[in-house]
Amino acid sequence: MTRLRSLDIPTAPRHGAGQSLPLKVGTRGSPLALWQTRHFLSIVSGFCPVLRNAKAFEEHVISTEGDRVQDRRLADIGGKGLFAKEIHEALLDGQVDFAVHSLKDLETELPPGIVLACLLQREDPRDAIILGPVCGAPDQRDPLACIPHGALIGTASVRRQSQILALRPDLRCAIIRGNVQTRLGRVRNGDFAASFLALAGLKRMGLEREAGVVLEADAVVPAAGQGIVGVTVRARDVELHELLAAIEDREARIVATAERALLGALDGSCRTPIGAYAQLGADGVVRLTGLIARPDGSYLLRDRIEGPAMEAERLGRTLGERLRREAPADILA
């Protein structure tokens, strides 16, 4: 078998014993998760000629509790880490060599022995409204006007719920879970007047046309890490980590660092509506927007900070601590 240490990676120093090919990649089984995994593998293969061999990788689909339990919010069954728990157990047990995730589904503090080795270029981070048959013609100038008064909106995200109810308190929200296709189907069938999905997922699945309205990030703040694919490995697998670091998108790492630091400072759970969105300007300045709210939209606090890219983590932590100080005590109780 080919050993990873023999790969022709000119700039990567050699450490550790190396992994044998094929490399095993852990992933959830949804169509979007599989698309993201295969996209990542195509990038790795393009970077490293030895890995262009069709047998260089093996996909290992791993069922997670977050996928299995579809009738409750993540907060009620243990939080967003439920989309990664079983995958990281497989990684630590040596059943897979690395794992591919939607970054927004990863807990802020990873399990001991696991590191976030690589982040891919960010897709459009904005949220999109999926409009059902009862909705009128969309108007980007007033994106919620097309939804009928008192309509039922499908979302499992308290972040989206809080911001939508702050704008339209007459609307009602109920849980909708499942993959992109399932959610689109339930709106088409009239179970909900409308729903919300990440535009990144729609684009990756070739379903961008399903977005009735795209919500600008300054109107509805995205989730931390939304639109970014992250890859985790065992901390001890230094050589594999170095291989993946060579294909990482620098801007994605900087903005994700700021956003996840904000989330960590707030110690946010899936019960707390939190938004975090960072942009890296051509001037090297990170501009970070943070949001914290009550799920019913009765209180919403938005704040901003900016500073040099090398201080992304400090910026996120500072803004998170500021939001914590200024928010009512009940929000993070």
Give helix % range. 25-40%
The first-to-last residue Cα distance is 54 Å
Widest sheet: strand ordering: 2-1-3-10-4
Mean pLDDT: 88
- Main sheet? 5 strands, mixed
Q: What is the CA-based Rg, rounded? A: 20 Å
What percent of residues are in strands? Answer: 15-25%
- Per DSSP E runs of 2 or more residues, the count of β-strands stands at 13
- Give the helix tally: 10
Structural classification? alpha/beta
Spans with pLDDT under 50 lasting ≥5 residues? 1-17
Kindly describe this structure.
Residues 1-17 have low confidence and may be disordered. It is built from 10 helices and 13 strands. Helix content is 29%, strand content 21%. The strands form 3 sheets. It has a 5-stranded mixed sheet, with helices on both faces. With 333 residues, the protein is an alpha/beta fold. The protein starts with 22 loop residues before the first strand and ends in a 7-residue tail after the last helix. α9 runs parallel beside α10.
